[in-house]
Amino acid sequence: MEQLELFVVQLEEAKALIEKERVAHLRPAFILFDSVTELVLHRTVQTELWDQERLPGWLST
């Protein structure tokens, strides 16, 4: 739940920066988007790896 809040806050801040339509604000917005993307990717990979570790045990039972 804490990660979801982090995603939402970062995306809202990025949106606010983009709406200012200045290059100086677009750069930090891009960094925030990059951070959210990295967190989502990390979470997805963790889930996939966890599933792969658990799958053989489930299949054997």
Please give the radius of gyration in angstroms: 17 Å
Number of helices: 2
Structural class: mainly alpha
Strand count:
0
Rough shape? elongated
Largest sheet properties: none
The quaternary state of the protein chains shown equals single chain
How confident overall, as mean pLDDT?
85
Instruction: Please write the string of helix (H) and strand (E) elements.
Output: HH
Uncertain regions spanning at least 5 consecutive residues: none
Q: How much β-strand is present in the residues?
A: under 5%
Fraction of residues in H or I helices: over 70%
- End-to-end distance: 32 Å
Describe, in plain words, how this protein is organized in 3D.
This protein is mostly helical. It has helices at residues 2-19, 23-60. Helix 1 runs antiparallel to helix 2. The chain is elongated and about 60 Å long. The protein starts with a helix and ends with a helix.
